[in-house]
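Duplicate of #3305? Posting structure anyway:
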């Protein structure tokens, strides 16, 4: 287990003027066994340096590294595998290892709900503030996903779950890029396998969701609710009429 509460601040990191000094800081953030197995020398120091030197971007990063991190987190959620990563917060950098539970998208940012083993509490982590995570072994006896957590308060506040419409979707892709094909709306992700994801889409009205789904290049199944299915059917009929096509026309 890493040492609870060890945080590397930008000032402390800057005062560590050589690699040996920085390695000592990294080692102080983890147990000897964890440091020995996780240590990647200059690469690890670069990850911490990058997190400390650059404030989080105002808009989400969508490059290859960002999507790699998101895929790694999703891969750890399905089997409930231990996830470890360096994380940059307002106070500095800390090494975290967690039981990953849920992914939530808010205004195009992705957040991980996880049980923090050191804090013994639920925590929320923003994906773009993580260094690339390491997916460890499957947890031997993971606890049940909590019915209520502080993360649910977070969702209620930023997602306005009480006043928005929710649709239950399943998205399937023929390649491993299904995450990048999700509709561009807020929601909660439920990884099923590498190419299949459940997604609870949260929108202000059904028209917003229909417009988002029209741009998705993947197979989508609507599991509910019925009123969204009916709205979607009416929208499809209107579009077919506008295009001059009918159900009897050949494709």
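Output from current build:
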């Amino acid at each position: 287990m890493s040492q609870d509460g060890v945080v590397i601040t930008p000032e402390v990191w800057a005062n560590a003027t050589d690699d040996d000094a920085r390695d000592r800081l990294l080692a102080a953030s983890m147990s000897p066994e964890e440091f020995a197995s996780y240590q990647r020398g200059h690469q690890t120091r670069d990850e911490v340096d990058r997190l400390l030197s650059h404030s989080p971007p105002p808009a989400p990063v969508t490059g290859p590294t960002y999507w790699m991190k998101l895929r790694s987190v999703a891969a750890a959620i399905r089997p409930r595998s231990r996830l470890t990563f360096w994380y940059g917060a307002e106070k500095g950098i800390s090494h975290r290892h967690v039981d990953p539970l849920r992914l939530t998208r808010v205004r195009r940012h992705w957040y991980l709900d996880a049980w923090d083993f050191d804090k013994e509490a639920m925590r929320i982590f923003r994906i773009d503030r993580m260094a690339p995570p390491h997916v460890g072994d499957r947890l031997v006896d993971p606890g049940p996903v909590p019915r209520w957590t502080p993360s649910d308060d977070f969702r209620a506040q930023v997602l306005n779950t009480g006043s928005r419409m929710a649709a239950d979707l399943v998205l399937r892709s023929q390649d491993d890029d299904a995450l990048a094909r999700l509709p561009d709306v807020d929601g909660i992700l439920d990884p099923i396998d590498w190419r299949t994801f459940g997604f609870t889409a949260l929108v202000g009205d059904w028209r917003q969701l229909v417009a988002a789904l029209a741009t998705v290049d993947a197979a989508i199944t609507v599991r509910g609710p019925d009123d969204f299915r009916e709205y979607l059917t009416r929208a499809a009929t209107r579009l077919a009429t506008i295009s001059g096509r009918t159900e009897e026309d050949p494709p």
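Confirmed duplicate; merging threads. Residues 170 and 198 are 4 Å apart (CA to CA). The helical segments are 10-15, 19-28, 32-38, 42-53, 64-77, 150-158, 206-213, 226-243.
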